[in-house]
Amino acid sequence: MTVKIQLLPEGTTFEAEPGETILDAALRQGIGLPYGCRNGQCGSCAGHLVSGWIQYPSGLITALEGKKAGTCLTCQAVPTSDLVLEVAQRRVPAEIEIRTLPGRVERKEHLNHDVVRLLLKLPEQQRLQFLAGQYVELSLRDGRTRAFSIANAPHDDAFLELHIRQIAGGEVTRHIFEELAEKSILRIRGPLGDFYLREESQRPIIMVAGGTGFAPLKGMIEHAIEVGLKRPIHLYWGARSRRDLYFPDLPGQWAEKLPSFAFTPVLSEPDADWTGRTGWVHEAVLQDAGSLDAHEVYMAGPPAMIAAAETAFLAHGLDRNLLFADAFTYSRSPTGEAGDEA
């Protein structure tokens, strides 16, 4: 038996099938809800449960308990009654169609000690239309699936470019690093996510990357260059050491094409000869910008970085509606092995 879900404040209503999560039901019917990791870790999908019953994989909660906790994770919550849910709807243009396609590994390139770049070729006459910053799900032959951000811009769509970091204990990334060969065929599903460059604003942009969070921001910046975006863009890239900045020369190339672009790398465990910025990347942003009430911010990286930056940025005047984040989380297989979401 289907259940009815009403979204506030817009009043949108839709139905969910038995056993279907709120997010899956919404996306199936073309309703845009915020989400990121889709495994309950990043919190991007959180809404406020006003009334009704939901069930998480760990058990049943009531509307009262949901209110007390203040959140309902739509990517995990399965409704067991009609619901009223308060959540901010985000709309991806209707022409962006989610598709499932085969992709051939055209090139596999190690960018540093723990990051590999894959260039995936889609079938002839096929292109995946996407927005700069979105991601795809990559499935191996055995069915294991992980999500990775698209690192190229929409106009440069001959290949899909992915940056994949090797995770300690991660069986999927181990397979990609050690066993996946060029010409291998993978299954691609996407584009997914509502992390993409908003082009209609005139506000200056601050971008904050942690590790391979550089990937979706790369796509955004290269799209900005392509469309001639005039807004100032300042990219901060946080990493442990110099070798973790796996595309060190690329920002300089962007600056030659985009006069309003600035780049600041920030190292938390700097090399002895490092003369650049050190410490936490979000603190470097605040040292430079001070108040953020005039800015728009895009962040991609580990959840701890996202959480710390969000708290600090909101305290310094950033409008919550102008903060867009993509938290890269770890997913676990039934055997407990960790894999990355990037």
Strand-helix topology:
Blueprint (H helix, E strand, L loop, with lengths): L2 E6 L4 E4 L5 H7 L17 E6 L2 E3 L2 E3 L1 H7 L2 E2 L4 E2 L3 E4 L12 E12 L4 E7 L13 E5 L5 E5 L10 E6 L5 H8 L6 E8 L12 E6 L3 H14 L5 E7 L10 H8 L3 E7 L9 E2 L2 H9 L6 E6 L1 H13 L7 E5 L2 E3 L5 E3 L2
Parallel strand pairs: 1-8, 15-16, 15-19, 16-17, 17-18, 19-20
Antiparallel strand pairs: 1-2, 3-6, 3-8, 4-5, 4-7, 9-10, 9-14, 10-13, 11-12, 11-14, 21-22
Helix pairs in contact: 6-7
Q: Mind explaining what this structure looks like?
A:
The protein is an alpha/beta fold. The chain folds into three domains: 3-86, Beta-grasp domain (Ubiquitin-like (UB roll), Roll), CATH 3.10.20; 99-194 and 333-340, Elongation Factor Tu (Ef-tu), domain 3 (Beta Barrel); 205-327, Nucleotide-binding domain of ferredoxin-NADP reductase (FNR) module (Rossmann fold, 3-Layer(aba) Sandwich), CATH 3.40.50. It has helices at residues 22-28, 63-69, 171-178, 214-227, 250-257, 281-289, 303-315, and strands at residues 3-8, 13-16, 46-51, 54-56, 59-61, 72-73, 78-79, 83-86, 99-110, 115-121, 135-139, 145-149, 160-165, 185-192, 205-210, 233-239, 261-267, 277-278, 296-301, 323-327, 330-332, 338-340. The strands form five sheets. The chain has a six-stranded antiparallel beta sheet, covered by helices on one side. Helix 6 packs parallel to helix 7.
